[in-house]
Please model this.
Amino acid sequence: MVTMKDVAERAGVSVATVSRVINQNGYVSSDVQTRVTAVMRELNYQPSLLARSLRRQETFAIGLLIPQLDHPFFSTLAFAIEKTLFAQNYRTLICSAEENATKEDAYVEMLLRQRVDGVIFVPTGHSDQSLARLQAMTIPAVLVDRDLFGASRVSKVLSDNVRGGYLGMQYLLELGHRHIGIIGAHEYSGSMTQRLHGVQQALAEYGLSNPPLVLMDTLGQFEMGYSAGMRLLRLEPRPTAIFALTDVIAIGVMHAAAELSMRLPQELSVVGFDDIPLAAYSIPALTTVAQPIAEMGAKAVELLLRHIQQPSQPFETITLATRLVVRHSAMAPSR
Amino acid sequence: MVTMKDVAERAGVSVATVSRVINQNGYVSSDVQTRVTAVMRELNYQPSLLARSLRRQETFAIGLLIPQLDHPFFSTLAFAIEKTLFAQNYRTLICSAEENATKEDAYVEMLLRQRVDGVIFVPTGHSDQSLARLQAMTIPAVLVDRDLFGASRVSKVLSDNVRGGYLGMQYLLELGHRHIGIIGAHEYSGSMTQRLHGVQQALAEYGLSNPPLVLMDTLGQFEMGYSAGMRLLRLEPRPTAIFALTDVIAIGVMHAAAELSMRLPQELSVVGFDDIPLAAYSIPALTTVAQPIAEMGAKAVELLLRHIQQPSQPFETITLATRLVVRHSAMAPSR
DNA sequence: TACACATGAGTAATCGTTTACACATGCTTG
DNA sequence: CAAGCATGTGTAAACGATTACTCATGTGTA
Model:
């Protein structure tokens, strides 16, 4: 690998001068400037970011730790974050914990060793040890999407899950549904719990008692939504509507219903949560509670970079609004 | 940030000894061993991978360059690759070029500067300059999913796109369809072209001429499949089947059909390509030509690591079989 | 004329590791 | 008993950049 020394020798100058040319600081005669530039191109020289980062004590790298890369919500979020960071000349180290606390922990350690300048963290919710580890070092972190109980000295970007839960449930109740199944996931991080709070609020307004509920172990993929949906659809009496606390779950539920030869939305209304890109393209198109995914990512980056550039910044918690997007997967019950 | 020097001082030994404890090489008395270990834990010491990589001249990092992170096929592939590499103690630097040659080029340069040990590359197909750049340095690379004309000195993991194209088309013809629309994408990398070759082969067998064809600029997302589908479905006579050269396109097409109040698969048969996880959960479940995504990722990692560990290895091209997965989105035409 | 200051470029220390080499001690072995 | 080897540890030179210092020169100004 060609180094600065090689360039310096070939151009007949010292390494310091080459460095000055690269970083465009200090005084360099235009003669030397062009000569060095030519040599760099000729040798196809690429400065080592390892050496640079070691010396400068900053890497321009941000760790992004998410529960599952292979999940539309998180890959959309990751994409938004990567894009925003790239525009600001930061690289993103995307780490997928696979909803596994051990792997998450391994990744936190790896990111610290990698000396990333900061971390954007969507905890699996299966362990909060990792955040503690992170905070033990004084590296800036921001929590996105999932809150973590007891997390201090971090900024947070959340969305209004309580309101979202309320909106989805209220919509189904307003349509006239009275037998509504709910599907969520266990999670210590609380955003699911908050959605359920919202659901309860709506229920209370209508003076109704608790609905049939299925809680999956993790967010899972379509398959888990499918099997959770099956469980609800085998109930007697069968629910006329299902509120899935994730779009991916909702898609799984719709598939289950279709497999039982139920017509959608005539025989079953389904409402989702998240508004992933796919939601608009399911059949029927999914009515869902939208989170502003791209905005969440952008905000998280903004807060993090502000902290990196100005460590004295106070910590903030931003709660973004959720809203109901009405498409075609829900309608009034037939009877 | 606490360094090896801090640990050494606190434990009353030299940095060399600390290094020996960490790397478990050289002789260290068990007394010192435990003392140093204790201090490391006490100070929460994390070795700097920057310094280590600089010194050792290897980073244990692999660059993964894909066209769009926010696309089910690539996020599934990325997930598989990340998982395989993680198990082998390698980190993955995931880079999403957004089907943009400029960004792709910027990423290649970044990866080189980052001194990654190797690169797994799914080219956008909008420029082949980036690979040349990569090959100019002597860093091992393997091409996955998309071939690149004129790429030498790389290993490749492809799937049998010609056969896949043939299988999908042959299936529709066998069902009795004679007016079949095709949707693909422009791509210099050739895998789309190969699928079209397969389509032609099947057509030739049935003595049929060219079908209506829509080529999109890039792979795109659901939306592009939707609009391409709309174009075909507005044709007179309307096709009785559409072969979408990507599952994402297929989902978009099905949505377009549903919007035109067509019943699936009675009034329109759809066949996709890729077999992304979603394919099994669309309504109706998508009949598609499956690529072994996880296996492609695993093979790519295997070839790359082999090259890294043994630079003299010859370059290989592996072509994995595609196969038709029959679900419920295609049936015989009604008339 | 003398002095301050802008310009241009080199020397060497530094970032945090790893590792070749040196050195000391104790034990084995011929 | 001396040589040789295993064991344990420290010193210092890398790795490839950045940057604080130095030291020239030339130029403007009192």
The radius of gyration of chain B is 25 Å. The mean pLDDT of chain B is 94. The CA atoms of residues 166 and 213 of chain B lie 16 Å apart.
